[in-house]
Amino acid sequence: MARRTELGKDLIAGQWVATEFHTLGKLWSAGLPVPYPVQFDGAELLMQFVGRDGVAAPRLAESRPSGPLLALLFEQVRDAMLRLAELGWTHGDLSPYNILLDDERAVLIDWPQVVDVVGNPYGFAFLERDARTVCAWFTRRGYAVDAGELTGDLVAAATRW
Hints:
- By secondary structure, the protein is an alpha+beta fold.
- The protein has four helices and eight strands.
- It is globular and about 45 Å long.
- The chain starts with 5 loop residues before the first helix and ends with a helix.
């Protein structure tokens, strides 16, 4: 199918949604902090609402956590990244825009580009970029973390046999 036709565009959009739906299902089943995937239909994905009292949880980038909450959130994101690496994956585009702050809980979203760390020739570069991006945000907010150390931990987790 040609990508520029409406049918081609619809097929590609449907593939992205199907990939995200199946990825969320695997991650949810593995206990990672992601929204529960409810269903998908064509190019639309329905997932669990993340928030309280009808108000959507903000993106981490839109929030200003400090002190102990900042440390708690980093540890939650770090743990999720490690568990993901143990599955052989990295998010591929992890940033404070793809992390929701649900009260005091980090929830990772936006999964259609999930990367196989070992199988993708650029997998380790994506893993390092995710670590660098996350660590830079937390460091700018006053919680200094070492991206190199996190990357090393993630590589070790992804290559355990």
